[in-house]
Design a protein that fits this description.
- There is one protein chain.
- The protein has 425 residues and is an alpha+beta fold.
- The chain is 31% helix and 25% strand.
- The protein contains 14 helices and 23 strands.
- It has a four-stranded mixed beta sheet with strand order 21-22-1-23, with helices on one face. A four-stranded mixed beta sheet has the order 2-14-16-15, covered by helices on one side. Strands 4-5-3-13 form a four-stranded mixed beta sheet, with helices on one face.
- Helix 8 runs parallel beside helix 12.
- The two termini are 19 Å apart.
- Bound molecules: uridine-diphosphate-N-acetylglucosamine.
- The site of uridine-diphosphate-N-acetylglucosamine has 24 residues, from helix 1, helix 5 and helix 6.
């Protein structure tokens, strides 16, 4: 087990390139089993979630080869397999393999999924949608047993615009006979990216990125080569790293329109933000101003940036309010930030009232999930003294070479064995 040892107080200055999107890569890795042949994916982030997902599809017979961010996946021959419960439980998107594998092999058993502990995270929309496409799914002793004679297109309405359910159902519908309509679909950039990938394989999809997606089923998907675009949450995290350290950070290789909600809040807080065709730069004063932030489905403020934003606002002048509306308990960062001297009070479970303090002080803290971990690293960069962030396996799920990137920007951060209590920086 490792930890991040951080010596705070350095202004971050410089430029960073962002790795490929974890969530897009995971969505494509679920759908790649629809393709009867070889898929080549470029710019796949080398993080533990993508590694686990690649291993999982290998269990079902796909052949996978990694080479420096490029993944070659041959899903010509697939078979029903016993899967390792631990592996399936470690990532939520393991469940998104159910529909695509059913479309190819007709029968399947998959343990119930896990993922970051940020709320109940049910899969009922997925199951309802797959049922309407003609799948029978039963949960017995923690294992989903699914089968279908034939998938047939259907008209369905999601109760909430779930990113995962939209991806899962859209992908599965590509091989269902006839037309599928998904209403109240999620509009996240990762949905559009997945649709682009599926279309590159010959799928017929319209409306991805809007609330109504239409899929005309085809008989097979063809091999293709596809590049995963930059991770908008990693990009947002580095912008906040610049802002929290009163720094000057330019993030390259991203789509500024995907950062619109984050950019708008950084400007409201008093940071100067400039943008070009594929970059965003933040220049922050010594002290930012308090904000009101409400997480919403895209294009609203992303829930994945809620915890990093909370870290930023602990040091802003005045009282900020952050309302988390997507997950009921995405609050694992609160107690740990308070250990560092922040003044955060929770109201009604998921509304954080943050009274800005003059400074944070380094402490030994524990990541409770991926973005909570990122928030603690950000706080550590700005805190006085030394911070030890433990449980960084959560952070490794979604940030490729985080410590290297922050070091390149002038941060002082090292990966150390957890037993090491002194911060050797
Ligand atoms: C994805 C992202 C995650 C992001 C989230 C929202 C991945 C791997 N993860 O998660 O980083 O925070 O989108 O942008 O891409 N819900 C149900 N029933 C369901 C499905 C969802 O009630 O069957 C609820 C969830 O509990 C949550 C809300 O819908 O309250 C949105 O969840 P969803 O968009 O599905 O999130 P994920 O796809 O799991």
């Amino acid at each position: 087990m490792s930890a991040f040892a951080i010596k705070g107080g350095q202004r971050l200055v410089g430029e960073v390139d962002v790795a490929g999107s974890k969530n897009t890569a995971l969505a494509i890795l679920s759908s790649v089993v629809l393709v009867d042949g070889l898929t080549v994916l470029h710019n796949v982030p080398d993080v533990s979630d993508t590694r686990t997902k690649a291993k999982l599809i290998e269990r079902f017979g796909a052949k996978v080869e990694w080479s420096e961010g490029t993944l070659a996946i041959d899903a010509t021959h697939l078979e029903m397999a016993e899967t390792d419960e631990e592996m399936v439980r470690s990532i939520r998107t393991s469940f998104y393999l159910l529909g695509p594998l059913l479309a190819r092999i007709g029968r399947l058993e998959l343990p119930a999924p896990g993922g970051c502990r940020i709320g109940a995270r049910p899969v009922d929309y997925h199951i309802k949608g797959l049922n309407s496409l003609g799948a029978t799914i039963e949960l017995q002793n923690g294992v989903y047993r699914a089968k279908t004679d034939a998938l047939v297109g259907a008209d369905m309405l999601l109760e909430k615009p779930s990113a995962g359910a939209t991806q899962h159902l859209m992908a599965t519908a590509t091989l269902a006979r006839g037309c599928t309509v998904i209403r109240n679909a999620a509009m996240e950039p990762e949905i559009v990216a997945l649709a682009d990938f599926l279309k590159s394989c010959g799928a017929r999809i319209e409306g991805a990125g809007t609330s109504v997606i239409t899929v005309q089923g085809v008989s097979a998907l063809q091999p293709s080569e596809f590049r995963v675009e930059a991770d908008r949450i990693q990009a947002g995290t580095y912008l906040v790293a610049g802002a929290i350290t009163a720094g000057d950070v330019r993030v390259n290789g991203l789509r500024p329109e995907h950062q619109a909600a984050v950019i708008s809040k950084l400007r409201d807080a008093g940071a100067e933000v400039s943008e070009g065709h594929d970059w965003v730069r933040v220049q922050a004063p010594d002290r930012l101003k308090a904000l009101t932030v409400r997480t919403m489905p895209h294009p609203g403020f992303p829930t994945d940036m809620q915890q990093p934003m909370a870290a930023l606002l602990t040091l802003a002048e005045g009282t900020s309010v952050i309302e988390e509306t997507i997950y009921e308990s995405r609050i694992g960062h609160v107690q740990e930030l308070n250990r560092m001297g922040a003044n955060i009070r929770l109201e009604g479970g998921s509304c954080a009232i943050i009274t800005g303090v003059d400074s944070l002080s380094g402490a030994s803290v524990e990541a409770s999930d991926l973005r909570a971990g990122a928030a603690l690293v950000l706080a550590g960069l700005a805190a006085q003294g030394e911070t030890l962030v433990k449980n960084i396996h959560w952070i490794d799920r979604g940030y490729q070479k985080l410590e290297q990137t922050l070091t390149d920007l002038g941060g002082v951060i090292k990966r150390v064995p957890t037993e090491e209590q002194e911060v050797p920086v």
